[in-house]
Amino acid sequence: MYIDDITNAQRAEVLTAALPYIKKYYGKVIVVKYGGNAMINESLKQQVMEDIVLLTLIGVKVVLVHGGGPEITDMLNKIGKESTFVDGLRVTDKETAEVVQMVLAGKINKSLVNLLGLKGGKAMGISGLDAHLIEAETKDDRLGFVGRITKVNVEPIADLLENDYIPVVSTVGCDKSGNVYNINADSAAAYIAGALNAERLISMTDIAGILRDKNDPSSLIPCIDTKQAVELFNDGTISGGMIPKVECCLEAISRGVKKVIIMDGRVPHSLLIEILTDEGAGTMVTEGDFNER
Fold this sequence. Notes:
Blueprint: H1 8-25, E1 29-34, H2 42-57, E2 61-66, H3 69-78, E3 85-86, E4 89-90, H4 94-118, E5 123-127, E6 134-138, E7 147-152, H5 155-162, E8 166-170, E9 172-174, E10 180-182, H6 185-195, E11 200-205, E12 223-225, H7 226-234, H8 242-254, E13 259-264, H9 270-276, E14 283-286
Parallel strand pairs: 1-2, 1-11, 2-8, 5-8, 11-13, 12-14
Antiparallel strand pairs: 3-4, 6-7, 9-10, 13-14
Helix pairs in contact: 3-4, 6-8
């Protein structure tokens, strides 16, 4: 069915059905982590920005935290610098850190701000360097300037939300000596969501969620609590690239976020499906009872 095939009465019913969810999330903070691989498709990117603007217009306070791994790799390739990874994390020397800052805080951040503006939103781009929003230290000497977050200062984000802006945060950090660090976007989103006492953290990526069988998309696990997450770690269900994502879910919950969602950012309007329907999207991770999506 296409939108032109829907009658005005059906459209009214859709809006009425969304009313309880609009009331539920009105004035609440939702942090959306937008992953590098989920940003590749331009038409889907347009839809994600439309969804964020729509949520903002109905009173949801959305904070967009973004990564940009593929574009960093592309830029490094253009300057003839090979990308090296250890345990899934990019080895970041001084030159690579400069490229990370340029791509994340410059190109990607400002393009997302511009796109939100074109969709009717009021967005402001900031990085983890601004007002030392993300403070960090060396995570592992083997990784160079890859940072482990030591502190987040969310006052700039809170100020933007108070003035009805959509904060768009690029995940570079710094230490007290001024060194710039490459920060994992999932980790940054978890810390920021916790500090903002967010209602939800939604991680948009290029996978459906947590699968019982990684080769079978129909084996999606819709909901787990923290205890079950540990069990899935132990039995090997959560493995590979899903490990750091779920670890960041648990980090966010430990910092007070009520519910964390891992969802497929390639599904059209998955954000709206998650927030404005009882169907939900992806896998929800929560501290305890998850009877209510």
